[in-house]
From TrEMBL:
Gene3D superfamilies associated with the record: 2.40.160.20
Keywords for the protein's UniProt record, in alphabetical order: Signal
Pfam family of the protein (one): OMP_b-brl
Signal peptide annotation: none
Chain ranges of the Outer membrane protein beta-barrel domain: 43-222
Name of the featured protein: Outer membrane protein beta-barrel domain-containing protein
């Protein structure tokens, strides 16, 4: 009887031990499973939620063109010359060309320049006279406009002097005159500009003469 009781007690203890061992194994398996599931999340480090990035438009002010420069260039034009003399009135049309050199200064919205032009004679007779050469000095003043202030509208006024020769006799003399006009110019970049102008030259002194022409200009700036 005692042996049976003892055997029963040991069996109960064994069953309790087996049940406890089973629960421990299940707990261990559950812990390992959770660890395995959590490992990928931690292997990459903690990833925090990022706020959306706001896009801001930055308005960069455009830089206005600076017209200050020395320059050299040329004028190619077409014009009409008229002369009134004792023999009557004579008129000629033709192409003209001249070289120019000048200095321009930018004063903000306004621009000023001084310029000298030189032109060879065209060997064209007008009223018994032939122009051998001519030079002129003029001032220009105008205002900037357009995108980046690359356009310049201007007016010009100046004085000129030339040498004319009488056809047939070969006698030559010097003649003076004044000029005025207007035009536009466009600044391609810091080195080059192009433009167009309308000018009128009126002779002073002996005999009435005038010339009206349009010209295309191109200049190298430095």
């Amino acid at each position: 009887m005692v042996d049976q009781s003892t055997h029963l007690v040991f069996r109960l203890i064994k069953d309790q031990a087996l049940q406890s061992e089973g629960r421990i194994m299940k707990s261990a398996i559950a812990i390992l499973t959770l660890g395995a599931l959590a490992a990928p999340a931690y292997s990459g480090g903690f990833v925090a939620a990022t706020a959306p990035v706001e896009q801001h438009t930055v308005n960069v002010p455009t830089q206005e063109a600076n017209w200050t420069a020395n320059y050299v260039g040329a004028i190619l034009g077409y014009g009409t010359t008229n002369r009134q003399s004792a023999a009557g009135e004579d008129s000629r049309e033709g192409f003209t060309g001249s070289l120019l050199i000048g200095h321009m200064r930018d004063f903000g919205q306004w621009v000023g320049a001084v310029e000298v032009t030189a032109a060879p004679g065209q060997n064209a007779e007008v009223g018994g006279l032939e122009l051998k050469w001519a030079v002129a000095a003029r001032v220009k003043g105008g205002f900037k406009f357009g995108a980046d202030s690359r356009w310049l509208g201007f007016a010009t006024i100046g004085a000129g002097r030339g040498k004319v020769e009488s056809v047939g006799t070969g006698a030559s003399r010097y003649t003076n005159g004044y000029l005025y006009g207007a035009g536009v110019e466009y600044l391609l970049n810091d080195r080059f500009s192009v433009g167009a102008e309308l000018t009128r030259l009126e002779k002073t002194g002996d005999g009435d003469a005038d010339a009206t022409g349009v010209g295309l200009t191109a200049a190298y700036r430095f």
